[in-house]
Amino acid sequence: MATQIFVNLPVKDLNKSIEFFTSLGYSFNPQFTNEQGASLVISDTIFFMLLTEPFFQSFIKKGIADATQVAETINCISLDSREAVDEMVRKAVAAGATVPNEKQDYGWMYGHGFQDLDGHLWEFAYMDMSAVPQQM
């Protein structure tokens, strides 16, 4: 079995979060989705568990960060082209996301992102590996 990653994120309104990510073209695994959480499928090995805040809180003894006020992480996902990066951000904004930063273009690497409905930061990047500088 390949190594998989399951990133857990607290959300205020699970149904709105499901609608938001569905509008970006993602799907959810119904086997791991119920009224407390939803398994957002990014790829065969990458999943985000969107958990209602009370359910998320049941796993931790700390408070939950308010992602609209502080950055707890930046979730970066690679895409196949610059156009795909721009399209993902366009769809996210149309679905209610905000754009906290300008596009980043380093020639060989291009990225842009958004802040989702709960304030979580998402970046999408395209990298032309044949053009990566020899030394960074």
UniProtKB/TrEMBL annotation:
Pfam families: Ble-like_N (PF22677). InterPro entries: Glyas_Bleomycin-R_OHBP_Dase, Glyoxy/Ble-like_N, VOC_core. SUPFAM superfamilies: Glyoxalase/Bleomycin resistance protein/Dihydroxybiphenyl dioxygenase. PROSITE patterns: VOC (PS51819). Residues 3-127 form the VOC domain. This is VOC family protein. It comes from Mucilaginibacter sabulilitoris. The lineage of its organism: Bacteria, Pseudomonadati, Bacteroidota, Sphingobacteriia, Sphingobacteriales.
